[in-house]
């Protein structure tokens, strides 16, 4: 999951699960104006779906050149008012039948909406929640274990 950082236009990889963190080091910080699917999902406020490596190469050749293995991916903006708070990214095995049916986006879309609501509540210091400390240091994403 990428979230907006304190620097305007900069997204930061905030949560990574299921893959080794060092593998994604080149993409820990990403400007929303870059030609990458995460940036497009955030900047345009629409989901980006890449069902296989061929589609990734076609639409995002610079991004595809740095990938260590082929996969399918879905990038969903996390709603947060006038602009997305970040992007929920889901990586999956690449589609092999050419059907393009990467996944039913209903569940990830609901997760992105729920994350947006929770993040807004945290920012507002909602009921039973403390507002996040301004300027607090955050660690770099690490893989589990």
Can you describe this structure?
The protein is α+β, with helices and mostly antiparallel strands and 145 residues long. The protein has 4 helices and 6 strands. It has helices at 37-44, 53-59, 61-65, 106-123, and strands spanning 2-4, 10-13, 29-31, 48-50, 72-78, 86-92. The chain has a 6-stranded antiparallel β-sheet with strand order 3-2-1-6-5-4, sandwiched between helices. Strand 5 (72-78) and strand 6 form a beta hairpin. The chain is globular and about 45 Å long. The two termini are 18 Å apart. Mean pLDDT is 81; it is low at 130-145.
Report mean pLDDT, rounded to a whole number: 81
N- and C-termini, Cα separation: 18 Å
Query: Order of strands side by side in the largest beta sheet?
Result: 3-2-1-6-5-4
Proportion in β-strands: 15-25%
Cα-atom Rg, whole angstroms? 16 Å
Instruction: List segments where confidence is low: pLDDT < 50 over at least 5 consecutive residues.
Output: 130-145
Helical/strand content category: alpha+beta
User: Number of DSSP helices?
Assistant: 4
Q: Give the oligomeric state of the chains in this entry, treating copies of one chain as homo and distinct chains as hetero.
A: single chain
Element order: H for helix, E for strand: EEEHEHHEEH
Number of strands: 6
Task: Please state the overall shape, judged from the principal axes of the Cα atoms.
Answer: globular
* Helix share, percent: 25-40%
**Biggest sheet record:** 6 strands, antiparallel
